[in-house]
Amino acid sequence: MIVGLALLALLQQPADTTAGRPCTIVIDSIGGNYRQAVPAPGDTNRFAGGGVLAHCEGTASTLSSDSVAMFGRQRRIDFIGHVVMRDTALALDANFASYYLRDERLEAHRNVVATNRRNGSVLRGPHLDYYRAVRGVRDTVEMFADSRPTVEYRQAADSGEPYIIVGDRIHFKGDDRVWGGGKVTVDRSDFASRSDSLLLDETRGFGVLVGQPQVQGKGGKTYTLVGTRIELALEHREIRLVKALGQGKATGDDWTLTADTIHLMVTERKLQQAFAWGGKSRAHAVSSLHTIDADSIAIDTPGEVLTESRAFGHALSRAKRDSTAAAADIDWITGDSLTARFAQERDSTGRERSRLHQILARGAARALTHHFDDRDSTAAPAINYSRGQRIAVLLRGAKVDRVEVAGSADGVHLENRPVPPAPPDTAKKKP
């Protein structure tokens, strides 16, 4: 008891009975040896071992370790071996920790495990600096970790699967703001990202990836997104919107989309819509047999099923009959806007894929289409060129079935030159 009172007198600070009081260390028990040294007048250092238990006076914060060293003038306490700290905000385990009373800072080293007791997020790594929230010192808890720590980032302790964040450096401020630097990766079963730097700000529902950023959606059908800068819109730490700003490229199972700016809308961890537009370059969408170029493009994929795309501003779509089609056989349609509608069909492997079945052009519409003979696959196609205010091209399979034109309609249809009849057999004699 005398030792405990002596240590309390050494480490005592003026108490702050309001929120975030300074930690006045009280030694509850010492299981082994105790000694003290006086390296200079007015400076006393104390050492204890055999298992030490302590707490912050007037709080629920507790600390324990195999041994402890207390330096009076430096106002520093070293906890050595099996360090266990339990604060109202944090549960921390480490092999070694130093507590600096002047700035209410804890440094933890080797096998550090820090758990946020409010939301269940966990940090593991070789080193952590923990800054307590103390009135008159700082208003928000902060943590800094380096040497490539790993973080299980959760919205709540029972919120299910966490995001796994790994980076050379991680910085937390409060429960809702995270910064990462140096080859930062984020992984979950439905999502993955790679970048040089990361910011997640749940208070604003906002995230940023910079430095060769890349995002991959893995909720069902996969997609990837790259760009100069990628931004995330968050709701309860669930991703609702992914934006590529500058040199954007999105790749899905059925299409590839490039543009200066790309937005991907996500619901229930699945891609639902994509929007693309450009300033320096036009938006460009590519599927297996079709391309679309326009000032802006919108693609609907409810439940990750491609159903419709819309293109606006000098829109142009090209299509070919198959992957071996010559350039002369490519169909195209253009107008102020284009709407392409898709239907689900099974391919030769039995897998469901989206196939274009109708494309509609509005405003100064023009179309060039090739019409093949179903009965003779070797015959050259007929060629149709149409103009009008509205043109609809309907397909059956990969072939153009018919073209419908409305509003100041005109054009030309060129049939394949018929095969001339065989000449009579003059050598054949009459009976």
Gross geometry: rod-shaped
Question: What is the residue-averaged pLDDT?
Answer: 86
The fraction of residues in strands falls at over 45%
Cα distance, first to last residue? 140 Å
Main beta-sheet strand count, sense and barrel state: 32 strands, antiparallel
User: Could you give the count of β-strands?
Assistant: 32
- Low-confidence segments, given as residue ranges, are 1-19
Tell me about this structure.
- By secondary structure, the chain is mostly beta strands.
- It has a domain at 306-417.
- It has one helix and 32 strands.
- It has a 32-stranded antiparallel sheet that branches.
- The N and C termini lie far apart (140 Å).
- Residues 1-19 have low confidence and may be disordered.
Write the layout of secondary structure elements.
Elements lengths: L1 H10 L13 E6 L3 E7 L2 E6 L3 E5 L5 E4 L1 E5 L4 E11 L3 E11 L4 E12 L5 E10 L10 E5 L3 E4 L9 E4 L2 E5 L3 E12 L2 E11 L4 E5 L3 E4 L5 E4 L2 E7 L2 E15 L3 E12 L2 E8 L5 E4 L3 E5 L1 E5 L7 E12 L11 E16 L5 E20 L10 E15 L2 E8 L3 E5 L17
